[in-house]
Amino acid sequence: MVAANEQNKNGILLELEDVHMSFGKVKALNGISLKVRKGQIHSIIGPNGAGKTVMMNVINGLYHPQKGGVFFKGQKINHLKPYVRAKLGLARTFQKVEVFGGMTVLDNIRLGRHIHYKSGILSGSLYLGKSAKEEIEHRTFIEEEIIDLLEIESIRNKPVGMLPYGLQKRVELGRALALGPEILILDEPLAGLNLEEVEDMARFILDVNEEKRWKLTCILVEHDMGVVMDLSDKIFVLNFGNMILDGTPEEVQNNPEVIKAYLGEEDLYSTRG
C-alpha cells in the first residue's frame, strides 16, 4: 500500500487494494485494485452481474471486504460505517431513487446537510446565537448553490413523491451534494431518463466536476457508453468480479477484449461518432 503522503503527492483520493468480496461460492469481486485521483471522473462499466454495485457498496461502507483494503486519502476505512465515510467526504446516489416522497424538495436536500451541523440541542431548539448563524449559512449553501445548479427553484416546495422520475433524480443528486463531499459516487444516474433528462444530468455531472465552486472527484457507474466515453477521464472495466482494463476512454474503445465483451462493434462505432 502506498503511504499517505505519497498518495497525496500522486493526487490519489481513493484506493482499493486487492479487494475480495464473496457471497457464498460467488466471487463478486476478485482481487480488485483501483486508484481514483483528485479531480477525475472515473467510470466503472460492465454487464449486469459484473460486480459494479458491490464495488460501490464496498466503497461507501454498506459492505466490508473479506480481504484487501479501502483507503481514503491514505486512511484505511474498511470497517467505517457509511455515515462516518459520508462525514469524511464520500457521498453517493443510488441506482434506484432513494428519496422521501412525502417531504418537499428543499427538506430532502436539507437532510443531506444535517451531518455538518455542530450546534448543541439547546441552541438548536431555541434557534439562538451560533445555531441561527449556522442555519443561515447552510440554508444559503443549499438555496444559492445546489438549487440554482440543478435548476429546481420552481419545485423547491413541492413533495418529491409528486414529481416526475427525472426530477426525483435531481433531488437525490442535490441531497448528495449537500453533504459537501470530496468524492461523489453516482450509481447509474442516467437510468430511466429520457434523452433531454440524460443531457441535463450529464451537464450537472460535468459542472460539479469542473466548476471552481465544486471541483468534485466523481466515480460513475453507467451503462450509457456514449456518455461514459464523453465524460470520463478513466474507465475501469469489470467482468464478473475481475478487472479487464483500467484506462482512458481511447484505450477502452480500442481494446479488443473490451469491445468483444461489452461495447460490441456497433456500439463502439456509435461512441466514435
If you had to describe this structure to a student in words, what would you say it looks like?
- With 273 residues, the protein is of the alpha/beta class.
- Helix content is 43%, strand content 23%.
- The protein is built from 11 helices and 10 strands.
- The strands form 2 sheets. The protein has a 6-stranded mixed β-sheet with strand order 6-7-8-3-9-10, sandwiched between helices.
- A hairpin with a 2-residue loop joins strand 9 (234-239) and strand 10.
- Helix 6 (129-150) crosses helix 7.
- The longest helix is centred in the middle third of the chain and has 22 residues, at 129-150.
- The chain is globular.
* Low-confidence runs of at least 5 consecutive residues: 120-126, 266-273
Strand content: 15-25%
Count of helical segments? 11
Oligomer: single chain
Radius of gyration, rounded?
Answer: 19 Å
